[in-house]
Structures are given as C-alpha cells and as structure tokens.
Amino acid sequence: MTNNQNSIQSDEANLEQRETAGLSQSQIIKRRFFRHKAAMISLVTLLLIILFVFSAGGIQLGTQDQPIRLPGWWQWTINDIPEIYDEGRPTLDLIPPFIDGTGMQIGPHPFGQDTIGKDYFALVMRGAQQSITVMFVIGLVAATIGTVLGAVSGFFGKWVDQAIMRFTDLIITVPSIIVGAVIGVQIGNLGVFFLAIFLGLFTWTGLARLVRAEFLSLREREFVDAARVAGADNRRIIFKHILPNAMGVVIVSVSLLMSSAILLETGLSFLGFGVLPPDVSLGLLISQNQDSFGIYPWLFWWPGLFIVTIALCINFIGDGLRDAFDPRQKRKITKKDREIAKAAKAKSVA
Amino acid sequence: MILFGATFIIYNLTAMSGDPLADLRLSTEENAQLLLELQTEQLQLDIPAPIRYFLWLEGALGFLWGDFTLGIGLDGAPVLTALSLAIPVSIRLVIVATILSIIIGISIGIVSALRQYSRFDYSVTFSAFLFYSLPIFWVAVLLKQFGAIGFNDFLVDPQISLGWGLAICAASGVFWSGVIGGSKRQIATTFAMAFATTGLILSYVSATRWLSDPSLGPIVIALTAVGIALGITQLSVGFNNKRALFTSLLIAGLTPVFYFLMQPVFDDTFTFELLLLLALLAVVVGYGIGFIFGGDEKAPTARTTAMVAFLSASLIVLDRFMQDWKIYYEEVTFGRPIRTVGDSTLELDANFWITGIDVFTHLILPTMALMLISLAGYLRYSRAAMLETLNQDYIRTARAKGINERTVVMRHAFRNSLIPLTTIMAFDFAGVLGGAIITEQVFAWRGMGTIFNQALQRIDLNGVMGVVLITSISALVFNLIADLIYSALDPRIRVTK
Question: What is the pLDDT of residue B497?
Fold first, then answer.
C-alpha cells in the first residue's frame, strides 16, 4: 500500500517536472488553465454570450434622456411595443420536428412578450448587457483600488498599514444596498455605468486584505533586497518586483468578485435600488414579473437563466485560474498520462 | 471607533439619498402643511444631517447611562420597539438556516473529500458552483411556485405517480452508492438496496396517503431509534465497542416505553420551556446511562448514548407534532399548508403543537432558499479543509500505527478539519443576518430586513440606522468570537498585539 503510494507520488512528480521543463512561469500557468476543461468551456460560453448579447441588442451609450444608439441585428428594441402574438408566448422552438411534430423556428418573439407586449428577447438582451457591464466595471474599479491599497498597506506596514486597514474595516461595514440606494437616487439616470463605478468603490475590501497579506510575506524575500541594493525605488519594487508575484491572488479573487458583483447588481435591482425603470436589468425584470409566474412563466425563466449562466461561467473560470496559479495543485493523473509515463520510463531504461 | 465612522457615513449617505418628506410635500390634503411641520419638528429635520447624526449618536450611546433611544421612525413609532419585534423573527429564520446548512454542508463536503475525484465528488463540486451562482430572489420565487403552490396542489391527492417514484428511487440509489462507494459490485448492491428501500417507503406513503395525515406510531419510532443507535455508534466508537453498542441499543429499545409514558404529558398546555427541559433531561439521562455502563471508555460511550437518547426523544416529539397536523391542515389552513407569506399566521389561538406546525410551515420555504445559498460555501470549504487535513503527516502516522480507517477519519481528520471552519461559521452567521433582506422581502416576513428595506425606501433615517447598528455590532462581535475560538482551538495561532 505505502510502496504503491510512494511510486505513484514519484510518478506524479516526474510527470509534472517533465511537462514543465523549459517553460516560463506564465507558460506553465497558461497550459494548466487551458487544460482545465470546465474553465475553458465556461470561457468560450461567456465570450459567446457577450458577443451575442451585445450584437443582438445593439449598444446604447450616454444617459437615459439623450441616448446614442448603435443598432443591433435584432428587429425590436426595448422601447418598441409590437402587437401581441400568440398571447405573448415564446416562439422559440429548438426541439427538432421528429420529436414534437412542429418545426424548429425562432419566430417573431423567441423569448415571448411581456405583459404590455414589449419584445422580451430585446429586454433580456439589454438586461444582460447591463449585468455584464456592471460585472466588468465593478471588477475593474475594485481590482484597481484593492490592489493599490493592499500593496501600499502591505509594503509600507506600520502606521500606513494601520490607517488603511482601519479604513477597510470601515468600508466593510457599509452595506452595499445603502450605496446602491444613494446612487440610485443621486445619479440613477446616468445609467448603469456610474452605478457600477460607485459599487466598485465599496467592494474592494476583501481583495485589499488578500493583497496585503501577500505583500507582507513577499516583501521579506531576497529578491526584494536584491532590487533595493540595485537601486530601485519603492514604486519600482512594488509594481515591477512584488506585484507580478502577487498577480495570482489578484486575478483569482477578482474573478470571484465579478461573479458576486453580478448577483449584487441583480439583487439591488430586484429590491428597486439599482437600475431603475425605464431602463432594464435582469434583476428588475424578475422583480417586475414575479407575481405573474403562474400565467407567464417565461417572463421569469429567461432573465434567471442568463444570470445563472453568466455567474456560473465566471465561477468556473475563477476556479480554473486558481488551479492554474496554485503551484501545490496536483492534477489528477489520468490513465493516458500514466501510459505515457510508463512508455517514457521504458525508453529511458532501454 | 469603526462603528462610529461607519454609522456616520451611512447616516449621511442615507440622508443624501432623498427627501423623507417628499410624499407630504406633494400631498394635496388640507393638513399636509401641518403634518410637514410636525414631522420636521419630531425628526429634527431642520438640522443638517451631519450635525443631526450626533443627536442620534447621543441617543444610541444612551444605553451607557440608561437613556437608550434610537429615535422614532417616519410613522411615529419608536424604532426600538419595531426592532425588538423584528429581531426574534430574523434570528429564527437565520439560526435554522445556518445550522441546517452547516450540518448538511459539512457532512456532504467531508464525504466528497473522502471520495476525491469520484463521480460523487464531481457532482458535489458542480452543485456547489451552481448554488453559488443562483440569485437568491430567483430561487425564492421558484420555491414559492413549486414548493408551495405545487406541493399544496399535490397534497389534495397525495399519490406519487410511477414516473416520479422511479426517478426519486433512482436518485436515492445514485446518492447512497456515491456516498458509500467501494468496488463496482458494492456500488451496485448499495444502489439496489437504496432503490428498493426508497421504493418501499414511497409506496407506503403513497398508498396510505401518509402526507395528508402523517404519523409515526410506536413501531416506526422503535425501528428508527434502533437505526439511529446503530448509525451513531458506528460513526462515533465503532461496532467493536460492544458495551457502547448494547447501551445505545438499550436506549433505543426503551424509546417505545417512553412514547406511551409521554403521551399524557404532551397535552394542550405544553409549553416551549417544558420542551427544552425534557430535551435536556433526555440528554442527561442518556449521558448517565452511557457513563454507568461505559466500562473502560466512559466518556465516548456516554457521548454516544446521549446523542442516541436526544435523537430518539426528538422522534417522539416529532410524532406528537404529526398528530396535530390533520387539524392544522384542515382547520387552520383549509388545505393549503405550506405558506408563502409572512412569518406566522395572524391571531392564531392554538395549543403549542399547532403553533409549532404553523411556525414550521412558514419557515420551511425561506429556510430552504437561504440554506441553498450558504450550503455552497460550506460544501467547498469543508471539502478543502478535509483534503488539507488528510494530507497532514499526523494522518499518515495514525494510519501507520494501524488505527482503523474510521478512527482516522472521524477522530484525527474530521476534528482537525473543523478548526478553520469555525471562522467561516462565525462570519457566515453575521453575514446571513444582514443578507436575509431579499428573502424576507420575497416571503413578506416582518424581520429586520423588511424594516431596513422599508426605511430605506422612505428615507427613514432612524429606521435604517437601527438595523445597521445591530448588524454591524453583531458582525464585530462575531469577528471577535471567531478570533478567540480559532486561537483557542489551534495552539499554533497566537493573538499578539
């Protein structure tokens, strides 16, 4: 038993070494990430969703009052009210004719129409755009603030660290729902972009703590001393020497932050504090239609489906990134790997 | 200090978010102007917000000198009274959800770690990700639709159709064979046994319409108690400890006797305090019996028997609740037992048992919604913690000494993997307390989340601040508790300051 385990462990070590020989750190990480099946599938799905959603609905910039629109390929927009077709039922039919007898078709309203007749496909596309925008903006803002504050706090230590960490504690206590409410009233009509920026200003705390912890341990390492002896100033040490080493932590936690950001935005909109009508958001769509579930179930399913898919994709990507960045992570040895290892061993013996 | 800064920010942010008197300003009633002045005076709205904050702070700090007030809400009622009504409601919701998700999450997470890279492990990991990505309001609305409306419709004629029955049996088979694992043959046997058992239970439930008039009766209670005794003994001390096995079987055998003894005690005048007392008594008696008959290993045996006694006693109480289910079902809810709105039936004047059922039917859906979300975290963390522990040197040492696998897993690995989880539990409890806002909104509970939500919508500063004060204090307290427990459990960690 023990003997067997030992040989398996050394096999694993050999395999790992042989695979990574002659590769730089970033290449190893890339390879590990590309091999993570769930993460790759999620990445492709997410990119397709983004492409689909933005090209279908068109892009709307500017404020709600003076929008600048780039039209998409879908025939309706969120402001059109076409006539009710088939009681607003979804016309999308993806089941092939040999199962249910009707043909596959997209129809005039693939996702159905809402209670006043607006095309639901256009609404959901617009909502998904909003959610994706919020997700990326919050991620970007929080990543920047969190990384910089965490880096400064961990690198300089002492009173700087104390001050920044107390400030972080303070921000943590402010519920994001209050921030959302305040922004909703103050600049609600400026659009989802500003909502996201302000939410980002309050969601960087977890990241800052992680980065700080990483910096605390990294700044004691020899390469930092070497850089200092070579005459590098603090800014250069932080950004050129330590930060690249802490990138793993940043990337992973930003991806997790983004998935919680999308749930935060939809939750806020659901409560009526985030995106306000007449603009559209996935959370708002669900909140508006939750009572008509029995009669118009599709009004409820589509937005939820998009939220779950996007959040799930991001979570899997985050998981893949974590595995790729974690040097202790051992991947499962498949049968094929073992055969290759055996063949290589036989070769070297011969 | 943090509390001071945070409340200051929140106060001013909320004040900035709008005009609390907007309704009255637009009102066309004759006395609008008068009301406006009255409100302004009552809430001191003529003072600018940053300064008004200190007036609020003075009231909030009042508990130091016995003059505690959190001000009055827009509707003129003191915030403190509203909060004192809401806090028990919120806590009831949060405690049940948290405890259940801790128990279920940790046990499944640990089994999944023990069967790493198996199909069971992959499906658990995938479901954890899925639960993590679910928006809680969406889950809640779905539960309302299928858990309440669907289930209530089903209860009218509780016959389980063949297709569903087979599906449930197969699901149970897959689950148990995944949990128990082993060779292909073992997996097949477990699958068949789980399939058959579930099938038997389901057909019994369906044929006797058990769901519309559930009961356990002394025979089922006795059988389940024996099952519990076997299970607990196997998990905690193993079958090799004959004394422990016989003692817990003895307790299980006594359960039907207690069933008949307890029936007259469980009358209409029963109270919650009495229930707590009896639970305590069951534990003490169980512990005592275990201690007396424990032989060389008194403490482990006593722990086992105490658990068996407690669980068997719960069965008897459960049965008593079930006896009143029919009354509740027909007379209180008129055939729609699972509730989607509110935290309890208003003006329900009934005995302890029916009130208990009432709490249960209101609690079940929001608890499931909350549970599903926090379950994901526990699944992932406990799996990671268990894997980490299983890789430690002391586990290898324990195995090398020849200790059997059950002791290695339950005593050496499981207990140590719980240490990092305590921190998460503390955080989670504080987090859920604030995070129940959306759930309370969907299910129309009158808890703290609802107060907060309504106050925020009406820009009722004092209402918002009351809830914020409580949640941030509880967050701070739980953080402190987490630190203390962690350093007490893990001697490698020392709090230095």
Answer: 42
The residue of B3, B13, B138 whose CB has the most chain A CBs within 10 angstroms, and thus the best one to mutate to test that interface, is B138
Phi and psi at residue A105, to the nearest 5°: -155, 160
Q: Note the residue count of chain B.
A: 497
Give dist(CA B307, CA B314) in Å, integer.
11
pLDDT-derived band at A145 (thresholds 50, 70, 90) equals very high
Q: Which two tokens stand for residue B42?
A: 């009552």
Q: Give how far Cα B304 sits from Cα of B11, B215, B258, B281, B289, Å.
A: 52, 27, 19, 16, 10
**Exposed, middle or buried by CB within 10 Å (0-12, 13-18, 19+), for A154?**
buried
> B22 exposed, middle or buried (CB, 10 Å; 0-12, 13-18, 19+)?
exposed
| Cβ proximity of B70 and B80 under 8 Å | yes
Contact between A115 and A297 (Cβ < 8 Å)? no
Say how far residue B144 (Cα) sits from the centre of its chain: 19
CA neighbor of A31 nearest in space, from A349, A335, A329 = A329
Interacting residues of B383 by C-beta distance below 8 A, sequence separation 6+: B109, B110, B112, B113, B121, B124, B125
What is residue A1's predicted lDDT score, i.e. its pLDDT? 41
Is the CB of A174 less than 8 angstroms away from the CB of B130?
A: no
A→B interface, C-beta within 8 Å: 2, 166, 169-170, 173-175, 177-179, 181-182, 184-186, 259, 263, 266-267, 270-273, 283, 286-287, 290, 293-294, 300, 304, 307-308, 311-312, 314-316, 319, 332
Q: Any residues with CB less than 8 A from the CB of A28 and at least 6 apart, and which?
A: A20
- Which residue positions in chain B have pLDDT lower than 70? 1, 17-33, 35-36, 38-47, 49, 62-76, 334-335, 342-343, 345-350, 430-435, 493-497
The encoded tokens of residue B232 equal: 């607990």
CA distance B129 to chain A (A): 7
Kindly give, in sequence order, each residue whose CB lies less than 8 Å from that of residue A82, ignoring residues fewer than 6 positions away: A76, A108, A109, A113, A117, A118, A119
ipTM: 0.76
Q: What share of chain B is helix, strand, coil (3-state, %, to 5)?
A: 80, 0, 20
Read off the pLDDT of each residue in A102-122 and give the average, rounded to a whole number. Answer: 70
pTM for the model stands at 0.79
User: Could you tell me which residues are beta bridge partners of residue B72?
Assistant: B78
A231-290 per-position pLDDT tens digit: 888 888 888 888 888 887 888 788 888 888 888 888 888 887 777 777 788 888 888 877
Q: Contacts for B392-399 with beta carbons within 8 Å, 24 or more apart?
A: B392/B416
Q: CA dist B233 to A187, B111, B228, B252, B283, Å?
A: 62, 18, 8, 12, 16
Give the minimum alpha-carbon distance from B224 to chain A in angstroms, rounded to a whole number.
39
Rounded Cα distance between B90 and A176, Å, is 20
**Residue A2's pLDDT band (boundaries 50, 70, 90)?**
very low
What token pair was written down for A145? 């603030």
Option in A174, A185, A270 nearest B438 (CB): A270
DSSP state, residue B412: I
C-alpha to C-alpha distance for B390 and B383, rounded to whole angstroms: 11
HEC readout, B95-160 = HHHHHHHHHHHHHHHHHHHHCCCCHHHHHHHHHHHHHHCCCHHHHHHHHHHHHHHHHHHHHHCCCC
Nearest to B315 by CA among B214, B211, B205, B213: B214
Rounded-to-integer distance, Cα B69 and Cα B48, Å: 20
- B54: which residues sit within 8 A by CB, 6+ positions away? none
CB atoms within 10 A of CB B393: 7
A93 phi and psi angles, rounded to 5 deg: -135, 100
**Structural domains of chain A, ranges and CATH numbers in brackets:** 23-80+118-349 (1.10.3720.10)
